[in-house]
Structures are given as C-alpha cells and as structure tokens.
Design goal:
By secondary structure, the protein is an all-beta fold. The protein folds into three domains: 138 residues, Lipoxygenase-1 (Sandwich); 77 residues, Immunoglobulins (Immunoglobulin-like); 75 residues, Immunoglobulins (Immunoglobulin-like). It is 1% helix and 39% strand. The strands form eight sheets. Strands 6-7-3-9-10 form a five-stranded antiparallel β-sheet, with no helix packed on it. A four-stranded antiparallel β-sheet has the order 5-4-8-11, with no helix packed on it.
C-alpha cells in the first residue's frame, strides 16, 4: 500500500482512519469500517559514509573508530565496511590501535548496518587518529538507503574548521532540517496502469489486443478472471458469448512499486457468425439517431424491401421482416444495446 500525504514531521505520531477499502487479494483481508491505526513517520538510514575533506599530503590522518548513535545505543561495530581507503574495516573493529587511513580529500569510510537494522541517528562518535600532525579538521557524514542516493547528515567544513581533532569527539545529528525530496531520492516510485474500457465484442472479432500501458514503462500482464476468453501472448482470444472479466497487473521491481490492478468487463456476442464482424462499422449504411427513442432511420439502402433482423446481445432474434421507407418503429424495445442486421450489414444500436 502506498499512502501519499502532505508534509509530516519526523518522529510525530499520526492517526489514520480507514474506510471503503477495496481488497483485491485472493484471500481478502477483513478491515472493518472506521478502523484506525497509529503511524509514526521516522527517517531511517541503512548506509553511512564518513568523507574526509582535509588534505594532509604524506601525513595520513585517519579514524580509529566510528559509531552512529541512536537513543544512546552505538551502531557499526563489526558491520560490513566499504570505502575508497584500503582498510575501512579498521573503523568498526573496536581496535583503537588501528586506523582507517584518510589522507586525500574525498577519501571515504562507509558502513552497511544491514537490512532491517536501519537507524535514526541523533549523533556520531568518531575517534580520530591521535598522532602528532595527523588530526582531522574537516569532514562530513552522509546517509543512504540504497548506497546510490546520499543525503548530507552532518558537516564540519566551514571557514573556521581548521583545528585538528585528535581522539574522541561526538557530534550531534539533526535530521529535522532535511529536505524530504532529498530523503526520497532513489526511493521506490509508484506507478499506474492505463487500461481503457473494452467495447462489447463479437466472437468473430477474435483475437483482440487490449490497449494497456504502465506509466513507468514496465511490461503488463493480464488475466481472464471469468468468462469465455483466454490470453494468448498479448492478445485476448474470444471463445463464446458471455461476460468477460479481465484484470491487468504490473508487479513492479526493485525501484518501482507494484501497480494497483485494473479490471475491465465487456460482453461477447456471436450474432455475427458467418459475417464479417468489421461490417459493424460499415460506412455504406447509416443509422440515426443512435441512441434512439422510438424510431430509427436507415439511409444508404440500395433498394426497398430489404430483409432485416434484430438481435439482443446474447444472440436471440427478437424480430425480423422487410424494411421499406427507410425506417423502423422500435418503441416496444426496452432500453439497452441491440444488434440490427440489414441485408449483410450489421450495426449496433442503442435504445434510450
């Protein structure tokens, strides 16, 4: 489920009332009307990266240990380390005699807390290398949830940041000022399926190709939920007359959420058996008005006394006869859709 809201404050609790839920799962979840849940919006990060911003040339600075702190609990020890330096593990091994060496501006020492271990850091503790002349004055801390899109969490790189730090320092991290767009950069994106209504069909129109598209460009799969039809590749084969229910789905991937399934229903008739179904859109014969109330006029007839037949959508013949004077009186019909066959031309007509 994707819940889109206006701006929320990190750490605050919000109550959500749930009504009119449409559950499309195979085994629907029972959600009572006016149900409420309490949700808390909190920014959490899985990956953290320390980036060195000084340049000591041959005098390598370095960090002996780095810990990211949430509610007094330190995180990072013995976690998977990464970085541009050769020894990033040294910053997360609890051995203060070894350092992750940083000597060039841009050198980085990162850590992966692991899936399910994301935290909302309130501070970071760093033990800088304490050899003479090898302290650190400028650095920044970055956070990410995919190791591709990074958000700056803390920086010590101002004009006054010139004093070398050696030994242990703890720096506060304030997440309240983060730009939500930066936080969500690289997060999974929602998607929607466009699935226009399918007009009523005749068996002789088979196969048909539904007009489907997902706005993120991913391939769509559709299924026949009920009715006389089956999916063959990207086409829908019509097997008999009846109501057809089709569902289109897109499951998403690592960067895109699954789309909300789209359902369409339409009727299949077999009134036109033995005729070219495309004649239903023939321009050789015009029916008006359509929709109509009581009388329908037919123009384009090449002669009088042309045979006609009227069918409902399940193929039952309702009446037949000879057409003369170019019109039919159909005030006895109920409102609905009918098929009119005049000679060898077939038209769909609608009674108001």
């Amino acid at each position: 489920m994707i819940l889109k809201t206006s701006d929320l404050t990190s750490g605050e609790e919000y109550t959500i009332t749930i009504n009119n839920v449409q559950d499309i799962a195979a085994s629907p979840n029972e959600i009572a009307p006016n149900s409420t849940i309490t949700a808390s919006f909190t920014v959490k990060f899985r990956y953290f990266d320390y980036i060195y911003l000084d340049s000591k040339s041959s005098l390598n600075a370095g960090v002996a240990e780095i810990r990211y702190i949430e509610d007094g609990v330190k995180h990072g020890k013995d976690k998977s380390a990464f970085g541009s330096v050769s020894d990033p593990d040294n910053a997360f091994d609890d051995d203060y005699s070894s350092n992750a060496s940083t000597g060039n501006s841009g050198d980085n020492v990162g850590v992966d807390l692991g899936a399910g271990n994301e935290i909302t850091p309130d501070s970071v503790n760093i033990y800088f290398r304490d050899a003479i002349g090898r302290g650190t004055s400028q650095f920044k801390i970055m956070g990410s949830n995919n190791q591709k899109d990074w958000v700056e969490l803390f920086a010590k790189n101002g004009a006054g940041d010139t004093v070398d730090m050696q030994g242990s320092y703890t720096f506060p991290i304030d997440l309240s000022g983060l730009n939500p767009e930066d936080i969500l950069s690289g997060a999974k994106q929602p998607q929607e399926i466009t699935f226009p209504e399918i007009a009523d069909q005749d068996v002789n129109d088979s196969p048909i190709t539904p007009n489907l598209a997902a706005d993120m460009g991913l391939p769509i799969t559709y299924y026949v939920m009920e009715g006389p039809a089956e999916v063959s590749g990207d086409q829908l084969t019509l097997l008999d007359s009846g109501e057809v229910w089709v569902r289109a789905t897109q499951p998403g991937n690592d960067t895109v959420y699954s789309a909300y399934p789209q359902d369409r229903t339409f009727h299949v008739s077999k009134v036109l058996t033995g005729y070219n179904a495309k004649s239903i859109i023939s321009e050789d014969l015009t029916v008006s008005p359509n929709p109509f109330k009581d009388v329908i006029y037919i123009s384009g007839l090449s002669k009088d006394n042309v045979d006609y037949k009227l069918f409902n959508l399940i193929g039952e013949e309702l009446e037949s006869g000879k057409m003369s004077n170019g019109y039919l009186q159909l005030n006895n019909l109920s409102s609905g859709i009918y098929i009119l066959k005049v000679g060898d031309v077939v038209k769909k007509i609608i009674k108001q």
